[in-house]
Amino acid sequence: MNLHATPSEEPLLRRIAKLERINAALMAHVERSMDQQGGAYSLFQTAIMLEGRVRARTEELTALMHSLERSNEALVAAKEEAETANRSKTRFLAAASHDLLQPLNAARLSASALADLPLGPEALAISGQVERGLQIIEDLIKTLLDISKLDAGVVRPVIKPIALPDLLSAVAASFAPLAARKGLRLRIRCPDLAVASDPMMLQRILRNLVSNAIRYTARGGVLIAARRRGPLCRIEVIDTGRGIAEAERDLVFEEFYRGGAPGEDGEPGLGLGLSIVTRMAQALDHPLALTSRPGHGTRMALSLPLCAGAPDAEIRPDPIATRLTGARILIVENDVAAAEALKRLLRNWDAEVEAYRDLGGVAAAMEAGTAAPDLLILDYHLDDGACGLDVATHLRERTGRVLPVIVTTADYAPEIGARAASVGAEIVHKPIKPAQLRSLLTYMLA
Fold first, then answer.
1. Which of these, 267, 344, 442, 420, lies nearest to 108 by C-alpha position?
2. What's the whole-model pTM score?
3. Coiled-coil intervals in this record (predicted)?
């Protein structure tokens, strides 16, 4: 534009400037319109693309949910199958154990009766070896059955208040002779505490821990200590033995793992003690901890809740055995070998013994004038589905007396224990331990 416009040119220049401004405004408006149209189109395209992605992701998630549902159904089916297999295994082991323990019972009673006879040193040594072998077989069968029951979840703890000093004293007393023979100190340190647990399961745990501690300790001793830890009690079994290497600390809780230390008889353990311990501790919800220094010893610690209730009085020392001279004992046992072995054993203890296979034989003997017995030893499972406790009922009705009854069985079903307890009978599981039987007989006849 000419900077030196004449007066006649100024109006034209103003119109040109105005038109340029109008043109610029129109161009800006067009550009804005085009930008808005372009943005709207872009948004439309983006919306379509996002809708496609959402649809694809939805289909993906739906497929994944269906897959998870099928997986869950498969897991539930597998869990049910495993539980059924566990129950079947437990039933099989229970039945097999019953059939295996019956002849084992007769063999143990016969071996015990043989040991009571006047024998030479060599015969006594052989008798002892037979007895130890039978004991190992019995322990193995019972422990495998226990593990199967724990794995199947059929063992239900019965939680009660327990006086801890009494329990620890009973455990220590049972191992004192073994510790003394190895030259070890066995001590307990326990304040006056009561805990909440299953008495029999807790005792089993502690017995296994103390047994292991003594087995793997060559010198020094074993301490069983309890202490309060807030609302909990911590029971520790501490030994000065060989210790456990880091690599072995998980293995020791597995079945049939043996650390290599021989038992008192020179034989290694079964390798099942700590496997039982860990399963029972889990069933009771009592955390178990292991610490160890190779060459210095091991500490096993069990944590369980304290209890302010009245302590359980079930755990008591065995009564002192006395002679059974003249005691009239009636046996009902359908296994001929077991009945003969038990008769020999009781007659070695100077008891007067009569044995029968069933209630019919007992009833016939009573009709023939046989004197009423002082005590009954009754096999629970007799022939043709009969129950040995029927004999006790018959004799109570006939004599008007409630006779002491010992029920023998290789069946660990809880309903058997409940029925025996309901009539005041004591249970002795087969194979029968002669020392336990003699102690119980003396106690019941006293």
1. 344
2. 0.47
3. 61-88
